[in-house]
Write a structure and sequence with these properties.
This protein is mainly alpha-helical. The protein contains 9 helices and 3 strands; from the N terminus they run H-E-H-H-E-E-H-H-H-H-H-H. 75% of the residues lie in helices and 4% in strands.
């Protein structure tokens, strides 16, 4: 295989990886669902080689599992694993807040406050579909702004895995407004240039989000029993 063919294959598998990841995290392929390789190869007009390469990468990222003689399936994340992921996420997010409080410019703080205002508008309308992507973007912006690529990469991987366990916990009991009030406390700690307060506020927000998520998931299971 020549270098050009290798480059094309890698590029194609990368595109397929992105498309499959979007389908999985967007819920088009549900947790526990089988990844139909033949149907996907036909849909994208590709051979199964680059498709399987993409699936192997997604398996390494913890989004799919391979079962011998059956194929690939979207991973299920149980409550115990979700709790463990949240514990690590809280530590990483706390570090991001601590770092940001030491380096944030007035311009960056203004950008954070503008994002809070947009989320407030969605929260007042109880519009989860508007709030959820704004919330994800807010957290992603913070982690990137902290300026630690290793932290950001691990954080993104954890968030992807948690999306396999997601529940609409934020809409329970006015949770959108509660969540954004926590966001404001985080931003104010950064604006005060207080690293310790920022670390505590950022970690506390993730821990409270974990409580809301697991509580909502338990209630869903109880209601369907």
């Amino acid at each position: 295989m020549d270098d050009l063919t290798i480059l094309r294959t890698r590029s194609l598998s990368g595109v397929l990886e992105d498309e499959l990841e979007k389908a999985i995290l967007g819920g088009q392929i549900a947790p526990g669902g089988r990844v139909n390789e033949n149907a996907l190869a036909a849909h994208y007009g590709v051979s199964r080689g680059p498709l399987r390469e993409a699936l192997r990468t997604l398996q390494a990222a913890g989004l799919v599992v391979s079962i011998p003689n059956r194929g690939y399936f979207v991973r299920r994340v149980d409550p115990d694993e979700a709790t463990q992921i949240y514990d690590v996420r809280a530590a990483l997010f706390g570090l991001a807040g601590q770092t940001l409080a030491r380096c944030a410019s007035d311009e960056l703080i203004g950008q954070l406050r503008a994002r809070l205002d947009a989320m407030d508008a969605a929260a007042k309308a109880r519009d989860f579909d508007a709030y959820y992507p704004l919330n994800l973007a807010f957290h992603g912006f913070i982690v990137e702004a902290a300026g630690n690529p290793v932290l950001a990469a691990h954080y993104r991987d954890l968030v992807k895995r948690l999306n396999l366990f997601r529940a609409r916990s934020l809409v329970q009991g006015g949770g959108l407004a509660v969540s954004n009030a926590e966001h404001r406390a985080m931003v104010e700690a950064v604006a005060a240039r207080d690293p310790d307060a920022a670390r505590e506020a950022f970690a506390a927000h993730v821990n409270r989000a974990r409580t809301r998520l697991l509580s909502a998931d338990f209630q869903t299971e109880k209601g369907s029993a």
